[in-house]
Structure formats: structure tokens, C-alpha cells
């Protein structure tokens, strides 16, 4: 008997998995950065009017969105007149005050004075519903209002 044994043919060495956690975390980080979170599902028609002097809002300040327009395809059971959409549901004018109160309750106290209400109004919506929403916003002291528009020639809104 010999003291040393011959090494048998071991075949393929096992796969090195030392860098696997690095690859997994790199992919996780990529998808976290590249993914856009859905804000709201639009249940209304929302073709925004155009304006030629447009300013961008700072994303630093909190923004609450109120959508107004006719119900979109698939939501015809809600009528043909302009409706208000708050988050992902249709609402009445009276619900705007509760919506603003809920938005204020969800944010830090020092950010409450900087809350901007952005109205995304369809170009074919009547001004009466916009006036009613603005009256409700005055009642709850939400006075920073922004109208969201698209960039373009304002004269095309008349057509």
C-alpha cells in the first residue's frame, strides 16, 4: 500500500456563487431607480389645454391633484357631464374639502402651508365645475392653486 493515493478525475469544479448577492442587489437597485410609481388611474378624459407661458412646479413642495372632465371610455355609466376625480374614484364637489383635509393629515406639519392644489381640467369641461371646486378650496383655505396645461400655442384651444 502506498502512502499517497492518486487523485481521481474530479470533473467540473462547482460554480462559484460568491458574486451572486452583488448581482442580485445591483438588479434590485436598478429596478428601484428605473420604476415609475403609478400616481392615479384616469377615469376621465383629460386632454389638457395648451399654453405658451408655462412654468414647472417644484417637486419639493407637496402637490394634490384634482382631475375634472367627462368620464372616459368604460365609465359611461357615470354620465356624460364633467365629473371630479380625486385619487382613483369619482367624487362630488362636497368631497373636495375632505380630500384636502386627508392630504394635509398625511403630510408633515411643516409642509402643510406649502400644499399646492393642481387642477387638471379637460379642455372641454365647463367652467362651472371648476368654479365650484375653487369655492370649496377657499372654504378649507387651500389658496395655492395651479392649473396644469400642456406646452404649445394657446390659440389652438379655441378650435
**Helix residue percentage:** 10-25%
Query: Count of DSSP helices?
Result: 3
Strand arrangement, major sheet: 4-3-2-5-6
CA-to-CA gap between the ends? 102 Å
The total strand number stands at: 7
Structural account:
Strands 4-3-2-5-6 form a five-stranded mixed sheet, with helices on one face. The chain has a two-stranded parallel ribbon with strand order 1-7. The protein has a domain at 50-152: Nucleotidyltransferase, domain 5 (2-Layer Sandwich), CATH 3.30.420. The mean pLDDT is 87. The protein has three helices and seven strands. Helix content is 25%, strand content 17%. It is an alpha/beta fold and 159 residues long. It has helices at 20-34, 95-105, 127-139; strands at 50-51, 63-69, 83-86, 89-91, 116-121, 145-147, 150-151.
Topology diagram in text:
Layout: H1 20-34, E1 50-51, E2 63-69, E3 83-86, E4 89-91, H2 95-105, E5 116-121, H3 127-139, E6 145-147, E7 150-151
Parallel strand pairs: 1-7, 2-5, 5-6
Antiparallel strand pairs: 2-3, 3-4
Main attributes of the structure:
159 residues, 25% helix, Nucleotidyltransferase, domain 5, single chain, alpha/beta, five-stranded mixed β-sheet
Task: Summarize this entry quickly.
This protein has 159 residues and is of the alpha/beta class. The protein has helices at 20-34, 95-105, 127-139, and strands at 50-51, 63-69, 83-86, 89-91, 116-121, 145-147, 150-151.
Amino acid at each position: 500500500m502506498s502512502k499517497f493515493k492518486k487523485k481521481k478525475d474530479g470533473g467540473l469544479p462547482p460554480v462559484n456563487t460568491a458574486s451572486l448577492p452583488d448581482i442580485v442587489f445591483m438588479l434590485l437597485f436598478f429596478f428601484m431607480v428605473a420604476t415609475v410609481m403609478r400616481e392615479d388611474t384616469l377615469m376621465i378624459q383629460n386632454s389638457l389645454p395648451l399654453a405658451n407661458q408655462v412654468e414647472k412646479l417644484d417637486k419639493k413642495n407637496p402637490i394634490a391633484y384634482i382631475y375634472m372632465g367627462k368620464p372616459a371610455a368604460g365609465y359611461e355609466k357615470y354620465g356624460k357631464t364633467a365629473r371630479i376625480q380625486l385619487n382613483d374614484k369619482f367624487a362630488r364637489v362636497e368631497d373636495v374639502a375632505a380630500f384636502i383635509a386627508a392630504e394635509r393629515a398625511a403630510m408633515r406639519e411643516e409642509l402643510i402651508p406649502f400644499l399646492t392644489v393642481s387642477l387638471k381640467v379637460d379642455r372641454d369641461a365647463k367652467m362651472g365645475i371648476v368654479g365650484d371646486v375653487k369655492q370649496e378650496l377657499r372654504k378649507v383655505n387651500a389658496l395655492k392653486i395651479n392649473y396644469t396645461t400642456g406646452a404649445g400655442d394657446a390659440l389652438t384651444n379655441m378650435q
